[in-house]
UniProtKB/TrEMBL annotation:
This is Tetratricopeptide domain protein. Residues 1-19 form the signal peptide. SMART domains: TPR. The lineage of its organism: Bacteria, Pseudomonadati, Pseudomonadota, Alphaproteobacteria, Maricaulales. It comes from the Bacteria. Keywords: Signal. InterPro entries: TPR-like_helical_dom_sf, TPR_rpt. Transmembrane segments: none annotated. The keyword Signal applies. It comes from Maricaulis maris (strain MCS10) (Caulobacter maris).
């Protein structure tokens, strides 16, 4: 009897359901870099997770006469900065500004998805992650966010 119980317990551990699956708890925010020096500085702040710096640079940057490409990047970075700072509504709005300039800006879609995720709106997040995946060329950050969303919803 004891050996049957032990065998059953070992079988349960060996099956995929018995193996604990780990999920990333936080989505990945992504910066957008351009040749513009100030946008590049904002991007570097995103990469270092310096959210107050990202917001400070971005709020001044989006009000300047940047090209459409640079302004899309600045808004997308500002979205990441707001999301990283916990200002999710502002993040969604900033990403909306980037997407108004370029509707297939995968970084803005990814970052808006991250803001939605962090705010607890998983359906909107998943829709944005899927749209970012369709607009990108298999970017690692988008793939990681899709995996996180799938893993978390499966658990």
């Amino acid at each position: 009897m004891r050996s049957m119980f032990l065998a059953a317990a070992l079988a349960a551990i060996a099956t995929p359901a018995g193996i604990a699956q780990t999920c990333d708890a936080e989505p990945t925010l992504v910066g957008h870099r351009t040749a513009n020096g100030t946008v590049r500085a904002q991007y570097n702040a995103v990469e270092r997770g310096e959210w107050p710096n990202v917001v400070l640079i971005g709020e001044g940057l989006v009000e300047t006469g940047l090209s459409s490409r640079n302004k899309t990047a600045a808004w997308s970075n500002l979205c990441a900065g707001y999301a990283g700072s916990g200002e999710y509504e502002a993040a969604v709005s900033a990403c909306g500004e980037a997407l108004a300039l370029r509707d297939n800006a995968w970084r803005a879609l990814n970052n808006r998805g991250a803001a939605h995720w962090l705010a607890g709106n998983t359906e909107a997040a998943l829709a944005d992650f899927r749209a970012a995946d369709a607009a990108s060329t298999g970017e690692d950050e988008v793939t990681a966010n899709l995996a996180m969303a799938s893993c978390t919803s499966a658990n």
